[in-house]
Amino acid sequence: MDLLRFVTAGSVDDGKSTLIGRLFYDTRQVFEDTLASIERASQAQGLEELNLALLTDGLRAEREQGITIDVAYRYFATPRRKFIIADAPGHVQYTRNMVTGASTAQMALILVDARKGVVEQTRRHTALAALLGIHHVVLCVNKMDLVGWSETRFCQIEAEYRDVAVSLGVRAVTVLPLAALTGANVVHRATELDWYGGPTLLEFLETAEVPNPARQAPFRFPVQYVIRPHSREFPDYRGYAGTVAAGSVRTGDAVRILPLGAESRVAGIDRFDESIAAAFAGDAVTIRLADEVDAGRGAMMVAASDAVVPADVIEADVCWMSDDSTLVPGQQVLVKQTTRRTRAIVERVIDRLDISSLVREPSPGHLSLNDIGRVRLRLMEPVVADLYESCRETGAFILIAPSTRHTTGAGMTRAVASAAAAGAG
What we know:
Helices cover 21% and strands 34% of the residues. It is an alpha+beta fold. The protein has 3 domains: 3-211, P-loop containing nucleotide triphosphate hydrolases (Rossmann fold, 3-Layer(aba) Sandwich), CATH 3.40.50.300; 215-303, Elongation Factor Tu (Ef-tu), domain 3, CATH 2.40.30; 311-424, Elongation Factor Tu (Ef-tu), domain 3, CATH 2.40.30. Strands 7, 8, 9, 11, 12, 13, 15 and 16 form an 8-stranded antiparallel beta sheet that branches. It is globular.
């Protein structure tokens, strides 16, 4: 079975957590003790029916306030597919949580209340999804029972949202009517929606084709660890362990190790206790080379024919996540990209994205908590960075405060420059 990662988003009270709870409940993914706990919590809230939102609103503060604060990750599986769900907060002040939840998602489920339709948060979350490289959005028109299951109302919302999606650069949109509270069109079909001929939400999730751009991207293998057992059984074994970030590699392929620049050939590929002929994006393997190469953690293995040049200047969209500091020009940061970590200087804060109007404000001077802006970084050591839209795995990075070692930001690479170009500029 393959794996689908998706994030849910929407305005407060649109029913995100209830929808996920309904998926779990109707697919029989809830353990009896968990169900008993939810029943007690629902009774404590004075509810006569089961509050399925409590299945994902795990924090005590969330249950008391009836909102999602943190990203709740949940896992479930059907006979056709496995799923990882990130239930992201709806509040503006939790933008960083939305970014965290969407960073590994292949698809976004954005909910709207059928009574309210497309609102500012709908546009905001769609823009964030597009910014984070999620190009397949499912608009779930929830609470259809509260508009009398109106086909006319559904079509109005669908038309409005498709215009918004096109303007924000979303490539694929699917629109579904449902009622999470009653379960209509979530897992089971509803007679009230007899005018709708499309799939239920679960049917769509089980069958949707979500391409993996990393598989088509050039080969990238960040070295995580060098294995030298020094044992009698393997006296000369030297392997480079890691996860293939993009592309593929086969035994016999010519490779280049950056930033060292040395070239060699793949002598073998090991996975667990077996040797395999090829490895693909997402595979955790150990690669053996025909030559001894002095490369350790942080080195990047690429195809020998790849003309990629390590970059020491990066322009990126950065989401600032620190609540006790701001990002300003001249600031020193640590950049962790794949397995490589290097110091960097913030040369310039180019602009800041107004999350409400989706307009970029030039030269804001700094980024504060939950701000997203274009930033120019000069790295002390070059890294192999691809553009985020072409390869998430090598186009993403985090910023770390050198003094506290706390993660302070997440970045998506939009432009790179080589050492030579940087010196010229």
